[in-house]
Design goal:
The chain is built from eight helices and seven strands, in the order βαβαβαβαβαβαααβ. By secondary structure, it is α/β, with parallel strands linked by helices. α5 links the parallel β5 and β6. α1 packs across α8, α4 runs parallel beside α5 and α6 crosses α7. It is globular.
Length: 255
């Protein structure tokens, strides 16, 4: 039995990394999925591939830091599929600036995508999640919510804010049958990290080994491993789980 059979999910940042892995896994588990991303070419290619193989997905190119973009994405999802049961807020950006270098513009950019975008999508989705009953929102935070990264002050701040948003939404909407949880992934090797490896003049394997060393498991996660945790929180398997932060970090925060 498929764990998301009959469900419709909306996933932001679904054209790469954890978002793409989540879209693919949700489809495999029986969901119809709408996903949003800024990368129109990649998003269209993924959607065409999945639809050609028998899945049902809708790709929407949009910028979710603007309320109009978030509203349009959720509205198109509902118009296309007729319902909405799951929202996965995943889209995010990283900036590498210390407090003395960070400008008002850079704060506006990262706060807009990483926090306001999540809030706007939740605002747009909650009425539909209410109607369907047993609605679920999964916000992708990060271990950076509790561990300061290397020159990632702005990113760390936004991810801590995501955990606060999660708890607030969970409390506000529990009586409406909507569960809200955050997933805090640790060191996950994605295309983003392939670019970082290339920029550092390292092979992918050398970069992965070094990047994963601080974890108890001494390795990085794959996007598919993190998507499995998203699936758990989104599905009825987590029916008594709300307002929490699940850490999928190879044990790094245990140290």
């Amino acid at each position: 039995m498929k764990r998301l059979g009959g469900k419709v999910a909306a996933v932001t940042g679904g054209a790469s990394g954890i978002g793409e892995a989540t879209v693919r896994l949700f489809v495999k588990e029986g969901a119809r999925v709408a996903f949003a991303d800024r990368d129109g070419s990649r998003g269209t290619s993924i959607a065409d591939e999945i639809n050609a193989s028998g899945g049902e997905v809708l790709f929407v190119k949009t910028q979710l830091e603007h309320e109009a973009g978030a509203m349009a994405f959720i509205q198109r999802t509902i118009e296309h599929f007729g319902q909405l049961n799951i929202l996965v807020n995943n889209a995010a950006v990283r900036l590498y600036q210390g407090i003395t270098e960070a400008s008002e513009e850079s704060w506006d950019t990262i706060w807009g995508v990483n926090v306001k975008g999540y809030a706007f999508c939740a605002k747009a989705a909650i009425p539909a999640l209410r109607l369907g009953g047993n609605g679920s929102i999964v916000n992708i935070a990060s271990t950076n919510a509790v561990i300061a990264g290397d020159n990632t002050l702005q990113y760390d701040t936004t991810k801590a804010a995501v955990t606060g948003l999660t708890r607030g939404l969970a409390r506000a909407h529990a009586a409406e049958g909507i569960r809200v949880n955050a997933l805090c992934p640790g060191r996950t090797f994605t295309a983003f990290h392939k670019h970082r490896a290339a920029a550092a003049g390292k092979t992918h394997e050398a970069f992965k080994e070094e990047f994963g060393r601080p974890t108890l498991l001494k390795r990085t996660a794959t996007p598919r491993e993190i998507a499995s945790c998203v699936l758990f929180l989104a599905s009825d398997d987590a029916s008594f789980v709300t307002g929490t932060c699940l850490f999928a970090d190879g044990g790094e925060t245990a140290m």
